[in-house]
Write a structure and sequence with these properties.
Blueprint: E1 2-11, H1 15-31, E2 36-42, H2 47-53, H3 61-65, E3 70-75, H4 83-97, E4 102-108, E5 126-132, E6 136-145, E7 153-159, H5 162-178, E8 183-188, H6 196-208, E9 215-220, H7 221-230, E10 237-240, H8 242-255, E11 263-267, E12 275-279, H9 296-308, H10 312-326, H11 342-360
């Protein structure tokens, strides 16, 4: 029997509530005869670790993660610590340290969710957003000079490389090729950003020739926001830069009903390092410790983690459990207009998975 070694990093805020819930789902699957076992190692990195040690994670932290099969991450963000410290000190340190250059964010309207797009049929919004995750606007290139003086200046350089753009576009075309509609939309801002974005457009055309069965089009990012709202059915797989896809994927999650249900995977497609899976909702300190956090985004991230490990059957089971829960209004958490707690939803999902195993037996 295969044993998977999973690192859990709850991080900050409600990450400390939803990551243990995700671990419980994985343990339930393993106990129910999914055909694999799971070994967990928990890492207490985050804001509390920073207060004790002055860093979000230890200098050799990547070495502790390197031998894992996958990472389940909660959130990075603390109201008492500047955001750039929490982000660059933990999440981005892992993403960039392990060259997890493909950030993948599926979005669809789950059963029972009252999504804002009232004219939209649930099947009209079924997207996967591929976000370049290693360079671009978040490359960390730039600096500040003359701080505190009238002539103070700051720069953030959007660094794009041909290698980085080629690999994310090729990944996105392959992903689109694997989906039923075989459609990809490449989103840039090449009318105003006339160097890097024009290079994206040129490389997209070159890479597209390797995928003659994929229908693709281009869209400017501002027009893409309107298209997501007004013509969602025209989109399927989407690829964009680090900043553009970061913004668009939050819009996508809101259009699907809540950021609380949205997952993401930070993927090393080349398999050199462990990939990391997380909900996108952030630390949400305003509801921390109150049992109000929606764990569905974490459970969907667990499904992505399982699929990445080749356990597609177990991933499908988790998705069926999620859909069963979202289809039940009494199991909706506050972000979905309900009163269910984190524990209620976790108990229901784990109960579904255990019941599936009993029926299969």
């Amino acid at each position: 029997m295969k044993t998977y070694r999973i690192a859990t990093i709850p991080g900050d805020g409600i990450g400390k509530e939803v990551v243990p819930a995700g671990r419980e789902v994985l343990e339930t699957l393993a106990a129910a005869g999914a055909g694999f076992s799971v070994e967990f190692e928990d890492f207490d990195w985050g804001g509390d670790y920073y207060r004790r040690h002055g860093v979000m994670m230890p200098a050799d932290g990547l070495d502790a993660l390197r031998g894992k099969d996958a990472i389940l991450f909660g959130s990075a963000g603390d109201p008492d610590i500047p955001d750039h410290i929490t982000l660059w000190g933990l999440r981005l340190k892992i993403c960039q340290g392990f060259d997890q250059y493909a950030n993948v964010r599926p979005t669809r309207i789950l059963p029972g969710i009252d999504a804002p797009l009232k004219r939209c049929a649930p099947d009209d919004l079924d997207w996967v957003i591929v976000r370049e995750n290693s360079e671009g606007e978040y490359a960390g290139v730039g600096g500040r000079v003359h701080q505190g003086h009238p002539i103070e200046a700051a720069t953030d350089v959007s660094m794009m490389t041909r290698a980085g753009v080629e690999r994310i576009l090729r990944f996105a075309f392959r992903l689109a090729q694997s989906r039923p509609r075989k459609r990809l939309t490449v989103i840039t801002k090449s009318n105003a950003q006339r160097h890097a974005m024009v290079m994206w457009d040129e490389i997209a055309l070159q890479v597209s020739r390797e995928f003659p069965d994929v229908a693709w089009d281009k869209e400017l990012v501002d027009a893409a926001t309107a298209r997501m709202v007004n013509r969602p059915a025209t989109l399927d797989t989407i690829v964009a830069t680090n900043l553009h896809a970061d913004i668009l994927s939050d819009l996508a999650a809101a259009l699907a009903g809540s950021l609380g249900i949205a997952p993401t995977g930070n993927i090393d497609p080349d398999g050199r390092y462990p990939s990391m899976f997380e909900p996108i909702h952030g630390s949400a300190f305003d509801i921390m410790g109150r049992g109000l956090a929606n764990p569905i985004g974490t459970f969907w991230s667990v499904a992505m983690l399982l699929d990445h490990l080749g356990e597609s059957g177990a991933a499908l089971q988790v998705m069926r459990a999620i859909e069963s829960v979202t289809a039940t209004p009494s199991l909706h958490t506050r972000d979905l207009g309900g009163t269910a707690t984190t524990a209620d939803v976790t108990r229901a999902v784990c109960g579904f998975l255990a019941g599936q195993a009993v029926r299969a037996a």
